[in-house]
Amino acid sequence: MKVLIIEDEPSMREILERALTKERFVVETAEDCSSAMRKFGVYDYDCILLDIMLPDGNGLELLQQIKKMGKKDRVLIISAKDSIDDKVTGLNLGADDYLAKPFHIEELVARVKSLIRRNNNSQTRLSFANIDIDESAFQAFVDDRPLDLSRKEYDILLFFMYRPNRLIHKEALAENVWGDHIDQTDNFDFIYAQIKNVRKKLSESGASAEIKSVYGFGYKFVET
Q: Where in the sequence is the domain holding 66, given as residue range(s)?
């Protein structure tokens, strides 16, 4: 799952990034409205953490822009401004939740997870063919037998489990599983290596689904 933190205070941004990364989210950050807008134009996110007070604009105005772009990303406003007017305005503009600073990190993480579950129809267990994933435990199963995956292998399989029988471009896969780090590479060899590992483990476990290559495009997760 991919999260964008829009927060201008470096220490708070670092705390949030560390906490959400620990919970196995792919985390990207932006320190102002302009850098956030650049990201919106390229990426989609499962959840956006949005501060109201930003150095080059107002977070509520940024929220309006997000909605005008037709983005479906869940938005959690995090702000030191704990006023009823800000809460009402934010929710009326399309925010999904509002959390005033200071807050407990545990509560923020719980709210992010809740918003993402809501966006995914409250699913915590996914099934396709004879493969299951228990998201609450970060565990994949084939015929109810645990599948031993590394963190990135699990993230790849989870990405496909949400998109069975759909054509997936390799760039979309990379952006969702690796986030900002995708910009630091010149090729996709690391993706090919990870996909190869997932395929091998699915095959050896007796899975009745596989990740097929679609020449010139990317991949498709299908039953065999």
A: 2-119
